[in-house]
Design goal:
The protein is an alpha/beta fold and 264 residues long. It has a single domain, classed as Alpha-Beta Complex (Spore Coat Polysaccharide Biosynthesis Protein SpsA, Chain A), CATH 3.90.550. It is built from nine helices and nine strands. Strand 1, helix 1 (16-24) and strand 2 form a beta-alpha-beta unit.
Length: 264
């Protein structure tokens, strides 16, 4: 089974080396790594070139934002399953892609497989901020604007085509819109993987303080209503008390067991 890993980058020279090295360290033999760079002004291209591996594709050109770049990458992908590893994230174990591929092979009726993510401090990737597991999740949780962790979500090519591209008109929450289409509109399901697969540095579009959270809530509410789902502002904001559990419940197998632990 061929696995396509998509990395979207812009001025990511400080972190994308970890991303690329963690992909190169994977023990699964058939990996395609597509990096779509939005014409970075820093040394992103040089760092990527220094960490090139077989199956590596690098494209650097202006784009219309994150979700436009993600759509361009999906259009180029040739893998049986496709997932996203951000330019400031990395696999925290050397068998992460193997776990993804073997879970997909074991459950051919699942449209995707979903693994856990550990969120860490920007300046210290050994300092855990919170856990974002794939379990428990059920489609009804989307009404609370809660979805599986996108950096651990790998989708079959046929399911990706069925759900369609990310909506680039949505500024922050196009991944949530896509998840609603996957689980609710298309009626697909994901097979969970209990292990933590990815370490994610804090930050990004969705973690920039109260203003970004308000924008996410507005977009999520609009998405739910767009697809005819009962929704309210109170329900959308109700996810945050639930997400508080992520600060107290430790991630499963993070750090990973020594035999598969990958260190940046």
């Amino acid at each position: 089974m061929k696995v396509t890993i998509v990395t979207v980058a812009w001025n990511a020279a400080a972190t994308i080396g970890d991303t690329c090295r963690s992909v190169a360290a994977q023990d699964w033999p058939d990996i395609e790594h597509i990096i779509i760079d939005g014409a970075s002004k820093d040394d992103t291209a040089a760092v990527v070139a220094a960490n090139a591996r077989p199956g590596h594709v690098f494209v650097s050109e202006p784009d219309k934002g994150l979700y436009d770049a993600m759509n361009k990458a999906v259009a180029r992908a040739t893998g049986d399953i496709i997932g996203f590893l951000n330019a400031d994230d990395f696999y925290c174990r050397t068998d992460a892609v193997r776990l993804i591929a073997e879970a997909a092979e074991a459950d051919p009726d699942a449209g995707a497989v979903s693994g856990g993510v550990a969120i860490v401090a920007v300046d210290d990737v050994t300092r855990l901020s919170r856990a974002y597991p794939a379990l428990p999740f059920a489609p009804w949780m989307l009404r609370l604007a809660h979805m599986p962790p996108h950096p651990g979500f790998y989708v079959r090519r046929a399911a990706m085509a069925q759900v369609g591209p990310f909506d680039p008109s949505i500024r922050i929450g196009a991944d949530f819109d896509w998840m609603v289409r996957f689980f609710i509109v298309a009626g697909l399901r994901a097979r969970p993987i209990p292990e933590t697969l990815v370490t994610l540095r804090e930050g990004g579009l969705s973690n920039q303080g109260l203003a970004s959270r308000k924008a996410i809530a507005r977009e999520a509410l609009a998405t739910l209503r767009r697809y005819g789902l009962t929704a309210s502002t109170a329900l959308v904001w109700a996810k945050y008390p639930v997400k508080a559990l992520q600060f107290v419940v430790p991630p499963y197998q993070w750090p990973a067991p020594e035999r598969v632990h990958w260190r940046p």
